């Protein structure tokens, strides 16, 4: 092996082992995040409503104003109902910390509530973070107090790029082994699958990692903004996103019709309004920022219109600058907010292929060292095997524990959302402990646990909400039906895997005996 | 219905193209036929594979436009290449007819040599 190749081998092996756990969790939660709004519907039964033909901003405004006034929030924002989120999703600032709140930064705690799209009435507090917990885990490890979670994720993203490049350089026979997976040869199967998924999934894995890193370029590479804007930290955002602002007057004023402003915005863009943010609600200086919804485009371009709320007059028309449009296109490639169900499913499946890539990397490391470590009496394989089990099946158990807890904990429980998150972490830690304590049987026992938890989640959903699979399919509620069906498919795969793994373990024990 | 047909084409054409490409390789041809190849792949097979993969691109751009169509096609390429890998690993015999077509020669009665051990792919 040449020194260069040896260095690539060292890099690929040890960076993979060191950051594989984090990478698997990021790919797993990222794959689930493709359907995080569907997971929201599953975890928040009060939001399983039919999407009305038209919605009224004027009907929902009093409830949104009341939410903002109740917490002294200087503004509120609403995401208008869509097919996979058929409710008004209202975000407002709150100084009160509760389990249903999620902070963007210390001192800037944002709360979320849902409104009925037909009446504009406040819906029952869901008491859960739902899919948002998994989504925020994907990019900031769901760290709620301090925004430090972005940095380990960024490190893992950079490591993933290094692993992809070093893996390609190490792979000597890319063309010859292009479609090769010798599953019957146990010694080769994990490496073959690792190579096949790595090479064939390369365009997707590279794209998704790079776009994820570029998405947070201002955190990973602050010079990009500090060079052109110097000390003016908010300069870029002011120029590119929000070009209009004015202070509160302190004089109450009646608002004009938000529906008429939205109609005017839709006329100007030729697209419907997707997001509305009202600053200083109820004040003489209140103004509304409206952004379009464009489900058919990759780029989530932030063109925006500013209206004077008391008069309804247009104040400012902000068209996205080229730099912002480029940034939003790259972000759009990662976020896939566009409506294209085959691409969303492909992103989900290819995200899971990233999990397979990481898991098979771990397995190859274990298989290639197991005999040597046993002969030398080293504990490395035992430690890494526990790490592998906890990082792969463990995080799946944690996720299923989170869903099961959502259906078991009473909705009136004051810290329900925190308790659900506690169940996630408890499940994950328990999986690690189990993997290290029972090294011989951890794989199949955890696979069995996954099968049981997945079926339990489906049964509990039917028992606690009455929305069993047949009913949701008949009703055309594909968000809830889809989550239930994926849970059942996952349970089936886990059960078959558990059976195969336990047979293999029994055969191994007999062979030794 | 028409959209479903186009969608089916977008998914099936790259899969078929990658099947042809895979069968141009000796080890995968052997896995599909249980025989050793005695002829080289027909040059038309490579052109057919390229046309099938390009056909998927054409249909996806026709359905979704240039930007979404390209994204769709790239993700389908990855998924279909992986699907071909798993087909060759689990059900390689399903590709037997296609395998013979890939190495077809005028006047050649059999494209394969002697039988090899079962499951040659392994």
Oligomer: heterodimer
Q: What fraction of the residues of chain A are assigned to beta strands by DSSP?
A: 5-15%
What level of helicity do the residues of chain A show? 55-70%
Terminal-residue CA separation of chain A: 39 Å
The overall average pLDDT of chain B, rounded, is 86
Task: Please compute the radius of gyration of chain B using only Cα atoms.
Answer: 16 Å
Order of SSEs of chain B, N→C?
HHEHHE
Proportion of residues in extended strands of chain B: 5-15%
Major sheet size, sense and barrel closure of chain A: 8 strands, antiparallel
Largest interface: A-B, 29 and 31 residues
Number of domains of chain B: 1
Quick one: how many beta strands of chain B? 2
Number of DSSP E strands of chain A: 8
- In the sheet with the most strands of chain B, the strands line up as 1-2
Stretches of chain B where pLDDT is under 50 for at least 5 consecutive residues are: none
Annotation field: number of helices of chain B: 4
Give the SSE layout.
The complex is a heterodimer of chains A (513) and B (122).
Chain A: H1 3-33, H2 36-43, H3 57-70, E1 75-79, E2 88-93, E3 101-105, E4 108-115, H4 131-140, H5 150-170, H6 186-200, H7 202-215, H8 217-220, H9 223-229, H10 235-240, H11 258-269, E5 273-279, E6 287-292, E7 304-308, E8 314-318, H12 322-335, H13 341-376, H14 380-408, H15 416-437, H16 442-465, H17 469-475, H18 478-512
Antiparallel strand pairs in A: 1-2, 1-5, 2-4, 3-4, 5-6, 6-7, 7-8
Chain B: H1 2-23, H2 26-33, E1 35-37, H3 43-90, H4 96-102, E2 112-115
Antiparallel strand pairs in B: 1-2
Model description:
- By secondary structure, chain A is an alpha+beta fold.
- Helix content of chain A is 60%, strand content 9%.
- In chain A, helix 5 (150-170) packs antiparallel against helix 7 (202-215) and helix 16 packs antiparallel against helix 18 (478-512).
- Residues 97-106 of chain A have low confidence and may be disordered.
- Helix content of chain B is 70%, strand content 6%.
- Chain B is built from 4 helices and 2 strands.
- The A-B interface holds A 176, 178-185, 196-197, 200-201, 203-204, 207, 296-298, 333, 338, 340, 342-343, 346-347, 349-350, 353 and B 7, 10-11, 18, 21-22, 25, 27-28, 64, 67-68, 71-72, 74-79, 81-82, 84-86, 88-90, 119, 121-122.
């Amino acid at each position: 092996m040449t020194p260069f190749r040896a260095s690539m081998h060292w890099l690929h092996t040890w960076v993979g082992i060191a950051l594989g756990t984090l990478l698997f969790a990021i790919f797993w939660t990222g794959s689930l995040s493709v359907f995080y709004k569907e997971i929201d519907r599953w975890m928040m039964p009060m939001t399983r409503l039919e999407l009305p033909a038209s919605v009224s901003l004027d009907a929902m405004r009093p409830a949104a104003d009341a939410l903002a006034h109740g917490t002294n929030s200087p503004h509120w924002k609403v995401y208008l109902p869509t097919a996979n989120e058929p409710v008004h999703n209202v975000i407002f600032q709150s100084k009160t910390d509760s389990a249903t709140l999620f902070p963007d930064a210390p001192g800037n705690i944002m709360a979320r509530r849902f409104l009925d799209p037909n009446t504009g009435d406040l819906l029952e507090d869901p008491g859960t973070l739902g899919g948002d917990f998994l989504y925020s885990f994907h990019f900031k490890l769901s760290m709620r107090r301090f925004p430090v979670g972005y940095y380990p994720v960024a490190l893992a993203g950079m490591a993933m790029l290094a692993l992809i490049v070093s893996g390609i350089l190490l792979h000597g026979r890319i063309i010859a082994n292009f479609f090769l997976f010798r599953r019957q040869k146990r010694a080769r199967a994990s490496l073959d699958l690792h190579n096949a998924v790595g090479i064939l999934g390369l365009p997707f894995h590279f794209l998704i990692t790079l776009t994820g890193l570029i998405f947070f370029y201002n955190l990973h590479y602050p010079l990009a903004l500090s060079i052109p804007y110097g000390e003016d930290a908010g300069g870029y955002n002011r120029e590119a996103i929000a070009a209009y602002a004015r202070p509160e007057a302190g004089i109450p004023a009646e608002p004009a019709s938000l529906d008429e402003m939205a109609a005017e915005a839709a006329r100007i863009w030729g697209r419907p309004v997707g997001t509305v943010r009202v600053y200083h609600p109820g004040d003489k200086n209140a103004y509304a920022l409206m952004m379009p919804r464009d489900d058919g485009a990759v780029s989530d371009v932030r063109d925006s219109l500013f209206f004077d709320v008391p008069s309804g007059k247009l104040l400012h028309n902000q068209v996205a600058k080229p730099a912002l449009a480029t940034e939003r296109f790259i972000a759009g490639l990662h976020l896939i907010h566009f409506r294209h169900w085959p691409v969303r499913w492909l992103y989900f499946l290819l995200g899971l292929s990233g999990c397979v890539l990481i898991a098979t990397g771990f397995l190859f490391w274990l298989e290639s060292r197991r005999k040597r470590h046993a002969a030398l009496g080293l504990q490395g394989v035992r430690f890494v095997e526990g790490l592998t089990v906890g990082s792969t099946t463990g995080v799946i158990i944690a996720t299923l524990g989170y869903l099961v807890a959502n259906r078991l904990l009473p909705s009136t429980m004051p810290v329900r959302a925190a308790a659900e998150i506690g169940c996630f972490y408890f499940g994950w830690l328990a999986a690690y402990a189990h993997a290290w304590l029972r090294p011989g049987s951890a794989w199949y026992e955890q696979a069995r646990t996954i099968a049981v938890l997945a079926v339990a989640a489906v049964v509990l959903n039917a028992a606690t909400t009455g929305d069993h699979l047949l009913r949701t399919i008949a009703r055309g509620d594909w968000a809830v039906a889809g989550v239930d069906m994926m849970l059942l498919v996952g349970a089936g795969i886990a059960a078959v895997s558990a059976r195969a793994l336990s047979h293999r373990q029994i055969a191994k024990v007999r062979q030794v005996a | 219905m028409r959209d479903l047909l186009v969608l089916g084409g977008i998914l099936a054409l790259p899969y078929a193209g990658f099947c042809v490409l895979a069968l141009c390789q000796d080890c995968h041809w052997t896995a599909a036929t249980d025989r050793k190849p005695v002829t080289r792949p027909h040059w038309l097979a490579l052109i057919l594979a390229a046309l099938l993969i390009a056909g998927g691109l054409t249909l996806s751009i026709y359905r979704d436009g240039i930007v979404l169509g390209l994204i769709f096609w790239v993700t389908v390429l990855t998924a279909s290449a992986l699907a071909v890998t798993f087909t060759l690993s689990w059900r390689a015999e399903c590709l037997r007819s296609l395998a013979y077509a890939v190495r077809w020669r005028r006047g050649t009665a059999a494209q394969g040599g002697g039988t090899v051990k079962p499951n040659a792919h392994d």
